[in-house]
Each structure stands twice: as structure tokens, then as C-alpha cells.
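Protein modeling request. Please complete all fields; requests missing the sequence field cannot be processed.
Requester role: graduate student
Desired output: 3D structure, C-alpha cell encoding
Chains: 1
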Amino acid sequence: MALVSKPISATQKMGFGKYRGTAINSVVQTDFPYVQWLVGECEWLSPRGMAVKEFLASAPEFLEEQARQVAAAHEALTPERALLLKNWNLSACSHRNGVHVTGSTYDFRGCLKHLGGRFEGTGWHLPGAGFQRFFEVLLGLPRGAAKIPDRPPAYLLDPQLRELRETTDKRPDLSAFVDTTELVSERVRSLLRLGTTFGMPLCAVDEQIEDVGRILKAFGNRARLFILASEPGSGKTFVLGGAILELKRLGVKKFTYVTLRRELILQIKQDLEPYDIGEVEFLTYPRIRDLPACDTDVLIFDESHSIKNVGEERKVIRQAEAASNWMRRARFSILSSATPLENPLQARFLEPTGIFDDIGGFENFALAYGASRTAIHGRERLAWKKTVTSSEDAKAARLFFVKRGILSSRKTRLPERAVDARLVKVRGDEAFANIYAGLTLAAAENEDKLQNGFAHAWVVNLQKRLLEAAKVRFAIQEAHSALNRGRFPIIFVETKAERQIDIPELLKCEEEWMAEQDGFGFQGAPRKNYGLPPIGVTDVLRAFMESSGLQKISIASAEDLIVDSLGANVAVFTGSVTPAKAQKNLDAWRAAEKPVLVATMAKGGAGLSLHDKLGNHPTTQININLPWTATQVVQVSLRSARYGLRGTAEIQWLFCENIPFDRILAARVGAKMEEMGAVVHGEAPACARRIENWNFEDEPFSETAEETPEK
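Delivered output (711 residues):
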């Protein structure tokens, strides 16, 4: 056997193991825990490994670093910290050149590993600096917290971000309010008090007057932004009308008012007719996508959640990008939405107003208030993940805006018996439940063939379509029950089109597409030219067909099923009819000519007032599927529960107990609702935890309500 020469320099390469091609001194600097293990505990080594081990044991670089590690460990593990660790069922002691952490470490394992820890028998060995950072992470958690994410929020790992947040939080509070008599004219006060004539409580009117004053105060302080985030049905349109009048009284000339659709422009003008707001340019969001941004004094974005989807770098939605350009040109922007953002990371779209300039930009704001850095496809991105601190971080982010005097968020306070809201578990159609189960199994067995996010999304969207289809029949039953009780049902669906998947035809198209691909890697015509889904999906569908025997997956339009069942009683308010026809149908429902309204969440889930205003049009709102976002849940939920409501509004969300996807979706959306409640109102809505934890057993209205006897 040839002898292995002992290294004579720390610049030589290791020559073995995972650092085979790396210089010895570089390994000492970048992964000292590995070097410690190599020198102290590793016994089964090659001759080259033994030679490196012997060299390191006496190398100056190793001895100096070892001394630094011992000193850092001694400094990090103070008696006070050792005692405080008991709050998290942890303990620690000095061990070799670091700190050994034991106890309930399982739920902290990802974080410990991220901070340089190595699991050794009974616990985790951390270098002194790693333990110091781990302890700082713990201090940012609620006492006794049982779990933290593998990668905690950035500010828990970065002292500079923590200091930035602490400094920002200590800045003067500009939200203290003065007497509105100094700011709001008697004319505007009188106009807002008109709300009491159609059911607006006086306390809500007083809040509206105050919010007009807050907008004026922000404008006077030369802020470029105000966020009006009161709940749906709280009278935000009237606040905007009052603000326009007062700003005109101050000499402001040019106003631009942007909303969702042209029919909503008509509704806004009708609502504000007594205000006589004068010249205001009204635009829709689709319109601003195509118009160049113009200078304006006051820019109003109604339903401003429609412009918050700004991505990093060039990954932007055209509408959000266009809105950003308009905000840059505006002297003052007013954003009106009950759901302006779901977490601090979504505040990026506010950046053109300069609101983050004094904290060093949006990225500093997001990282200081709960976001983290993550790598996606090798590139660093900002991410928001639910942690034990995320709700508190969202509350702190809310105060960032509140203390600058640019955010007002009011809750509606309807009488106790005015709204009967229920979360109802139902047993979905077994045929669709079986298709869902077979598709899910086929996708799991062919996971490796779904090559990208588009393929996964295709499968997930089909699963969600199956989930909705499984509950449509139950929704129709609830609508029949409501009609029999003399009520006016509103059925919210997610989708309007049917879905037909002919698996043999897709497999045939897949073969034709494959035949066109060149053997040397030439990419032929795009798959969409052949009507094909993303790569890998046909493998899933083939496996599903072989196991189930089904060659076609047919999902009828939920809208069509409802119309077929309820006939001429149905008013359709979806994208399947023209805007003019949709408005005519809505008017027919409001006039009781067609007692059932079916609407998509996309078209009817924001901006509409569907509540019973006179006491002769009691509504039963049936929401078939949870949407993907907390924003849409809140927007849809409060279409029929608003100020001015007469009688009782019935609202129920349907959840399918025999399709697991609904429980997964509920956990995801419920968590988002909790965080959105924190960032908008400073607290989570009461139902968020129930949805997230699947903790509800409400009965459907059809089983608890008495039918109205026939006359």
C-alpha cells in the first residue's frame, strides 16, 4: 500500500469526503462544526482522512478557531439564559467548544440546523454564535411557544432589523385626533347623517365624520396616502364623497376615481347624488391598464385589493403595475377596501407613495415586520409564512400605518340577531368524491412526472372543481328550502363553465406531440396547440383511467345546474352574460321578480350591496366553496350583512367532509384570515380559528328553520 503523505499546508485540499476539493483552511472557516466532529469523534477514516485529522489537531488555524469558539460559548451561555430556557422546556450546558441544547428540541430542529447545529445523541450541539442567535429567536416568541418554523422571520435572526423595528415603533404617534368641527363642514356632516334614515347607526355616522377628518388631516400633513379599510357595508362610499367635497373646499381641483366595473360607477354616482360632488373622472381598473398614467391631485382606488398583487422584479400583474404608475403621478392617493392586504408582505403595492422611504424601503419594512428570505429556483425572494409570531407581526405592521395617521379600519356592528352565519359540513356527491380520490392517488403515484408548478396547479385546480361539483346539489336543496320559507337565496359559485376531460383523446394528442419532438432535443409546437395540459398531467390522467375505468371526467357548470333545477326563478349575475344583462338580472332579483340570484365570487363578491333594505326581501346566502384567499372570503361573506339591514340575513359556507381537499383548504385560508384580521383590524375574526382547525358543527338552515306555510 502506498503511504499517504501528511499535509504540510492548510491551503492543501481535503482530498476526501464532502469537502474533497476544498482547501483545509477554507473548511475550518466555513464549517467549523464539521472540523470539530472530524477531529474529536470521527474514527472511521481513510488514510488521507487520518492524515488531515492529525494535521488539523495541531494546526494553528484550528487551535485559534477552537479558542474563539470556547470563548463565544462561554459568553453565550450565561446563568440567566440557562434559566430562561425552561420557559420553552429546554436546557443547555457547555460542551466541547460550544453549547449542547437538550429537552423539547424536536419542534425547533429546523431552526437549530439552520443556525449551524448538529444533532448528537440527546440534543443539539451549537457553536456559541449559533446559540446566541437561537436564544434571540426564542426571545421573539410567545413564552411557552411549542413550535417555530425551520426558518424564522428575518428580524429574529438579524439584530439590525430588530433595532430598525424598535426605532420605528417608537416614532411619534400621529393618529391622535382633534375635534372634527375644525375640519369637517356642517354640510358634509348633514349629508353623512342622512345614513341614519336608511338604518345606519349614529355611532357609525360619527365614525364616518371622523374618517373624513382623518383623510383631511393626512392630506394637510402632506402624506401621500390614506387607507380606508372599514368592513364591507360600513359606508366607505359616503366617506369618500364627504372627503371629495371637503378637499374641493380646500382648493383641490383634479380627482380620479377608479373602481371595478362600469355598473359600479353608476351605483357610486347614485349613492353620492345628494353630495353633488361635481367634476370627478371615473375610470375602471381594466381601463387604467391601457391608459398612460396622468397627473392628478387626488387618486381614489375603490376596492383597492384589486391592485395589491405586485410581484418582485418583472413578475407583476398589469393592473397592479398600472396602478403603481398612477400612484407615482398622484399628489394624494386614497385606497378604499375592507381587505387592503392579507399580510405585511402584500404592502409592496404602496411603495410608490413613498410610505416606506423613512424605513429604508419596502424590503426593510417587510423583513422587520415578519417576512423572511427564501430561495426559489436559486434566487432569493421574500416570503410570508405562518409562525407563532406572524399574527403579532401583522398587528405591529398595522400600527406602522395607524401611527402615521394614514389608516382607519372600522368594524360593522349589526344587532346581535341581525346575522345568522354558519359553517356547515355536508356529505358531497359520492361520484365526485370517488373521482377526487382516484385522481389524488394517481397524482401521488406520478409525482415525479409533474415537472413544474404549472402541472401541479393544473391538478390542484381540477381537485377544487371536483370539490365544488360535489356540493352543488346540496346548495340547490338549501335554495329550495329558503324559497319555501319565503326567503331570497343568493348562491355564490366559483366557476361558471363546464369542464370536460376526454382522457383517451388527450393521450392521443400527447402521442402526436411527442412524435413531433426531435430526438436531439428540438422543441416542436407548443403543447397548447394540441390542447394539452402541462407535461406530466397526461401520465396522471392515464393512471386514473386505468385504476378507475373512467375515460372521461365531466363536470357540469354549477350555474347551469342551478338554473336547470330552479328554472325561471334564477337571476344570473356572472361573466356568462353581458354586463347589461347581469345588471338587469340583479335588478329583477332585487325587485323579487326572480327570487334566486346566482353569482360568481369574481363578479359578485365585491362592490355589491345585497342586503334586505326594506324588511321585505330576507336573504339566505349560500357559499359553495371557500375561495383561495382570505380577501375573497371576507368580501363575499358580507355582501348581505351590511348597515341598513332589516330583519335577519342568513349566511352559510358549505364544507365537504368526504373530500379531504376542503379540510386542507380550510386550514390554509383560515390561517390567512387570522393574519389579515391582525394586519387590518388588529385582531383575527372570530371564525378564522374555527375554519383553520375544522372546528365547527353548525346545522344547515334547511334542518333548523320552519317553512312558511302556503297562503
